[in-house]
Design brief:
The protein is mainly alpha-helical. The chain is built from 21 helices and two strands. The protein is 63% helix and 2% strand. It starts with 37 loop residues before the first helix and ends with a strand. Mean pLDDT is 80; it is low at 1-46, 134-148 and 446-463.
């Protein structure tokens, strides 16, 4: 895969929990960790500082009381996270801190202290107490992601980016995803990761690749999107994580390439990997939509029923604007899609009417979702012989800012355009006016030179 950074997958070497014995070093001349006599200065010139010393200095924790507060805080958090109250009682003495800071460790610290140190810095103890090298270089590469806990910080950064997906231009999100992914690769290349850390980084990278696949499809590059989706599948499988997100993006791309049976099968594969959550709703909806477009109405009805049953068990507060979530407006889109694909425009209009009724004041308006519902409503009105309301439905869509004119919206518009251009509608003045406005919309979109640039890549737009 030409653009996929996953061809050189890092294989974690160190088993989880392995802590080697470290060599002894000369004692310091004074109790102050920063105080050095001539002997320690000469030794420091010949010996690289430990990763722990560099990281402590970066965080300005050199004074023992400051370090002690951070250590005790980490002990309490780890105790709560692991359900082990005794961890909260683990303490550190000034002498222990001096030995760790100076790198004069003869044997590994007490196991509980090791766990707390690893929790604080998200690096194995053998790396913390060894020469800094790649450990701190990788930490610095993370920038502002989360200096104190780089791996968990990257996971949170990826999740925050996903939550911005629906309200931010795709090329902007794509560029930021590339930056986070570069940090993930920096840690993978640094090596000396514990098995669990390597798996977590592979999982984060798989999720980022799936998100990038979705974004590439949104800006019209299905070929690259499929490539990244397949890479996401490999990373998530290697991490022994759920493959549902990768199967979802592959199903979406196959659907918009009009490979409906394949899309339905991809969604079914994802369902086998999913938990009873929003992603299961999404995958079931994609199977229903693709099956309906393929003409398999029985499979479409069964899949939509599964989506409805799963969605009913999800509390409203559990949905977000992330592409991996499934808010009510997206459920409306799929209800309408299946209804239209199975020749039931009245049911599509009923679904759209329910969405309009459910809109709460102050709720964020997701431009792409609103646009798809409006276009679907226009198609349903057209198939019901109601041309009068089409222009009113389409008008807000045609005023969308160019960066929100994603390929999914233009796909819906192309469907409407084909139907308006067919008999008997082609002779209608209303149809002619709407078609002219849609051509202006397309021309304005093409004025962007047909390309979108993000993160060093050039993608062809599908508008």
């Amino acid at each position: 895969m030409a653009n996929d950074p996953g061809n050189n997958v890092h294989q974690p070497k160190a088993p989880d929990g392995a802590v080697p014995i470290l060599e002894a070093a000369p004692p310091p001349a004074a109790h102050d960790p920063d105080a050095q006599d001539s002997r320690s200065q000469a030794d420091g010139a010949a010996r690289e500082p430990t990763a722990l010393r560099v990281l402590v200095t970066e965080r300005h924790w050199q004074k023992f009381p400051t370090f002690e507060r951070q250590f005790m805080k980490a002990a309490r958090e780890l105790a709560e996270e692991q359900g082990e109250p005794e961890l909260a009682k683990v303490s550190v003495s000034p002498r222990q801190f001096e030995r760790w800071y100076a790198g004069q460790v003869k044997t590994a610290p007490h196991p509980d202290a090791c766990r707390i140190l690893e929790f604080m810095f998200d690096l194995p103890v053998d790396r913390l107490l060894a020469p800094a090298g790649a450990s701190t270089a990788a930490s610095r590469a993370l920038g502002s992601v989360d200096a104190a806990s780089p791996i968990s910080g990257l996971g949170r950064a990826a999740a925050r980016l996903a939550d911005r997906h629906a309200l931010t231009a795709p090329v902007v999100v794509l560029a930021e995803a590339r930056q986070i992914q570069a940090s993930v690769h920096g840690l993978l290349r640094a090596g000396q990761l514990r098995h669990r850390q390597g798996r977590e980084l592979l999982r984060i990278n798989g999720g980022l690749l799936a998100h990038m696949s979705l974004l590439l499809s949104d800006i019209g590059d299905d070929a690259a999107g499929e490539e990244y989706g397949n890479a996401a599948l490999l990373y998530l499988r290697e991490a022994d994580a759920s493959e549902a997100a990768a199967w979802y993006v592959l199903a979406k791309i196959a659907r918009w390439r009009h490979h409906y049976a394949r899309a339905a099968d991809f969604a079914r594969h994802g369902l086998a990997q999913s938990s009873p959550d929003a992603m299961r709703v999404q995958l079931a909806c994609y199977e229903a939509n693709a099956a309906a477009l393929a003409g398999d109405t029985t499979r479409a009805a069964d899949a939509l029923r599964l989506a409805e049953d799963t969605a009913a068990a999800i509390l409203p507060g559990q949905t977000t604007l992330s592409p991996w979530s499934f808010p009510a407006e997206r459920m409306t889109i799929f209800r309408m899609s299946v209804a239209l694909a199975t020749g039931n425009p009245s049911r599509a209009l009923a679904a759209a009417g329910t969405w309009n009724t459910d809109q709460a004041p102050g709720k964020p308006n997701v431009p792409a979702a609103s646009a798809q519902i409006r276009i679907g409503t226009a198609i349903a009105r057209l198939r019901s012989g109601e041309l009068d309301g089409i222009a009113e439905e389409i008008s807000p869509v045609l005023s969308l800012p160019s960066h929100f004119r994603i390929a999914t919206i233009t796909g819906w518009l192309n469907d409407l355009q084909r139907q308006l251009s067919a008999r008997p509608h082609v002779y209608s003045p209303i149809a002619a006016r709407v078609l002219e406005e849609m051509r202006d919309f397309t021309a304005a979109s093409d004025s962007r030179n047909g390309t979108a640039t993000a993160a060093g890549y050039l993608f062809s737009a599908r508008i």
